[in-house]
Amino acid sequence: MDSTWSALADPHRRAMLDVLRERACAVGELVEELGFTQPTTSKHLRVLRKAGLVRVRTEAQRRIYSINAEQMAELDAWLAPFRQLWNERLDALGHHLDKDEHSHSRKQTDED
Amino acid sequence: MDSTWSALADPHRRAMLDVLRERACAVGELVEELGFTQPTTSKHLRVLRKAGLVRVRTEAQRRIYSINAEQMAELDAWLAPFRQLWNERLDALGHHLDKDEHSHSRKQTDED
DNA sequence: CCCGTATATTCCTTGACGCGTATATACGTG
DNA sequence: CACGTATATACGCGTCAAGGAATATACGGG
Fold first, then answer.
1. What's the whole-number mean pLDDT along residues A71-84?
2. What is the number of other CB atoms lying within 10 angstroms of the CB of residue A94?
3. Chain B within 8 Å of A62 (Cβ-Cβ)?
């Protein structure tokens, strides 16, 4: 899914997921815990909900949000084929430690 | 890292990573394979590079891009604590299949 | 040194996003 | 039904990212 990844692009939303991973929370608890305003929190929760990353359970006036593990599993599913790459790399490091003369310690990725 | 996640928010860039996972590619090959224009491809590659998700190797005029497995591993590291959640869920399904009366089959996430 | 190939960058416009403020809706209580 | 609590939404604004077209840079060959 596309909205799933764009939902994770925002660090605030990842922080919310980190909290929700510990326990399901009402909106007000997230507001207290993270310090965002209530409308902002609700709007981020809406994005997470549309992305399928969280689900809601209504409990009187309160909305209890919790992680939707299945959607998180989809993220993991996309990541899974890449996992083989760093396993190979770790394996390679074990075999011939300095074959690439530590060239990976050069920072060539943030040359801006 | 923050730029790492925002880089993945774009489906084009995820597609590029999917290609690069199979084999390292020059820019031109990515252009052919994915059908984006050359400037667009270069710009997306720049984002991926700044995010640390790919690295470049210069080879005459061509720039060979490849996955940076270490940064992908960081994504996996963030995802890891959540993995426990769906393992628990799968485990729970195994033990008492319909304890939550299949409530997770209701789509309450895309109510927009 | 000029040229062709390969790639990066700039400029510009447009659309999406996040925040804050204000307001609307839902729910329980007296 | 008026009220307070809890949450969601609408609006206006500033910022930012993406795409297209044009241009600039790097490299190798004759």
1. 93
2. 8
3. no
